Amino acid sequence: MAADAPFDPKMRKIPAQYRNLPSARRLEEAKSKFDDAASALVTANTAARAAGKRFTAEMQEQAERLSLAQQRLKEAEADFDSATGGPEPVVLTPLVIKKVRQLFPPDQQSEAISLLEKECGHNLPFSEGDSAQDLERVRLAVIKLTGGSLAELQRQIDIARVDWRDVLSAAEYPEASGMGFVQYSNLDERTRNEIKMRDRQQYVAWLGEEGIALPDS
User: Fold this and answer.
1) Under a CB-based contact definition with an 8 Å cutoff, are residues 170 and 177 in contact?
2) Residue 57: which pLDDT band, with cuts at 50, 70 and 90?
3) Alpha-carbon distance 188 to 198, whole Å?
4) CA 168 to CA 147: how far, in whole Å?
5) Measured between alpha carbons, how far is residue 203 from residues 4, 129, 174, 195, 217 in Å?
6) pLDDT band at 209 (very low <50, low <70, confident <90, very high)
7) Is the four-CA dihedral 95, 129, 164, 152 of positive or negative sign?
8) What is the predicted pLDDT for the residue at 18?
9) Is the pLDDT of residue 161 over 50?
């Protein structure tokens, strides 16, 4: 996540029947510390902009704090999933399976499909009741960012499990997201629209004729 990007984390909910588990309490604590670290980074970012600076030592410190909190949150989620058996796998849509088969070698496709079904489904933030169709957009974004690598697939899934908007932005709008929020916002409207159009065209081309419709923003 870019240090100058606004942050509003969407966290995974803990089902009521599991809230008294020790692993659930550890997960809640990890989520709270992640929230605090994210808020501190935003505050440092705001202070830097007010001082006319793009980056400060405080921003670096808070970014490192957030990175550590994110790693601990990931570990707490893994412990919670181990204790509860994790959410039920969600099958992939035909389009997602098609993209897996296009990008991954034949001997890795089954593992890629299994990872997506088990780890990129109801364990995503606020996705507990989502259908395969509901999950399709995030899963496609994750696949696009892998370059056909299983290790990268796991990494992108891990990112999506913290905040799936990060993978959507990187996959669907790589030029805009690569610039950072502040730089992009400072562009004139015509330039922003041109970048947005180029980003949209590249993603639609990657999806192919069967691609899903993208939102307006």
Assistant:
1) yes
2) very high
3) 16
4) 15
5) 24, 27, 9, 12, 14
6) low
7) negative
8) 83
9) yes
Lookup: tokens for 96: 């997602």
Of 204, 70, 215, the C-alpha closest to 140 is 204
d(CA 48, CA 52): 6
For residue 10, which of 162, 210, 193 has the smallest C-alpha distance?
162
State the pTM of this model: 0.67
Average pLDDT over residues 106-118: 96
Query: What are the residue ranges spanned by the domains of the chain?
Result: 16-84, 94-207
Q: How many Cα atoms within 13 Å fall on the side-chain side of residue 78?
A: 8
Concatenating the DSSP letter of every residue in 180-203 gives -HHHHHTS-HHHHHHHHHHHHHHH
Tokens representing 118 are 């088990």
Q: Give the tokens for residue 92.
A: 């992939």
Structure tokens at 33: 């510390």
